[in-house]
Design a protein that fits this description.
The chain is an alpha/beta fold and 328 residues long. The protein is built from eleven helices and eleven strands.
């Protein structure tokens, strides 16, 4: 019997859904439904400084309004025991160390990582955990990466290979306030839910090698990865809540869900001409070969979304960036 394919859509509950959220959900939904896979909505809510229960409810409502459905729903915060078990295993393997460096100190190092952030210079790398272990540590915890090339495979052809120790630097896996970070949380959650296939935006492609390292250290299988285009602002940054992207509450004052779905289908390449559509109406003709490989630029006029065309590279995965970092 063929094992069940299990997929997930895992947005962060830090603000209203926007066009980028809805396109990512649509592509994930179409991919899963086209192959008869189990599809889970996992709301990533462990960042208590940004995420609220109200935002989680609002995000569910937005996705339902847009026409997406799920075979199950969960909250990342419900998996704290599994996150702690993973930290324990990493600590026992000598892979964790405390870090007292602030973000401004890391930024002053002047070295860029492959994902556009500032690469950690390894200031605290030789420090050990306190006698009380990782639980008794009041500082952030970083993962000590060993140098070595990791070569994940992306189903869509993105080049994901890198030496994450060189290209990215040791990542924080538990913050000073006790919350686990995206890197650890997503790997543990995917394994706990038996996720075998991950569809996500290309802004996360540079993190894939770190996730594979964590999977190897924790004894987890590596899912199939496919990264897709992003929606960008005119200035070049990813269309996101942080940058004031138009939220779904304002969008629905000017768009029906069918009109918005049809617009995003045309922007992403799923449809050649503008036409209202529901996600289910797009399903029979869904094919990744139709989805654009380049990021797309949008403008919100206050009453309408305008598609301004493609932008190569954008804020997504650029293998030349990795090569430049690794050659330093």
């Amino acid at each position: 019997m063929t094992p069940e394919t299990r997929c997930r859509f895992a947005p962060t509950t830090s603000g209203p859904a926007h066009p980028g959220t809805l396109l990512a959900g649509l592509l994930c939904w179409l991919d899963a439904r086209s192959r008869g896979a189990h599809l889970e909505l996992r709301l990533e809510d462990i960042d208590h400084t940004r995420c609220t229960p109200e935002a989680a409810r609002d995000l569910r409502a937005a996705l339902e309004w847009f026409g997406l459905d799920w075979d199950g729903e969960s909250l990342q915060s419900e998996r704290s025991r599994e996150h702690e078990s993973a930290l324990e295993k990493l600590a026992q393997g000598g892979a964790l160390y405390p870090c007292r460096c602030s973000r401004s100190e890391v930024k002053r190092s002047g070295t860029m990582a492959a994902d556009g952030s500032h690469r950690y210079p390894g200031t605290c790398r030789d420090r050990g955990l306190p006698r009380a272990g990782w639980r008794g540590c009041s500082e952030a915890l970083r993962l000590r990466l060993e140098s070595g090339r990791i070569e994940p495979v992306d189903e869509g052809g993105f080049h994901l290979a890198q030496d994450p120790a060189v290209a990215m630097g040791d990542p924080v896996v538990r913050r000073k306030d006790g919350a686990v970070t995206y890197h650890l949380g997503v790997v543990v959650d995917d394994a706990a839910q038996g996720v075998t296939r991950i569809v996500r935006g290309s802004d996360l492609a540079a993190s894939t090698a770190i996730h594979v390292v964590l999977q190897q250290l924790l004894g987890f299988p590596t899912p199939v990865y496919r990264h897709h285009l992003l929606l960008l602002e005119e200035q070049g940054g990813k269309l996101a809540k942080l940058h004031g992207a138009v939220g779904w509450h304002e969008l629905r004052e000017h768009y029906t869900p069918e009109r918005l779905c049809g617009f995003l289908a045309r922007v992403s390449g799923l449809r050649a001409v503008p036409a209202d559509a529901t996600p289910r109406e797009l399903l029979p003709d869904f094919d990744w070969e139709r989805v654009r490989g380049q990021d797309q630029v949008l403008r919100w006029t206050g009453g309408e979304l305008l598609h301004l065309g493609s932008r190569p590279g954008g804020n997504g995965w650029n293998p030349s960036t990795v090569a430049a970092v690794e050659q330093r």
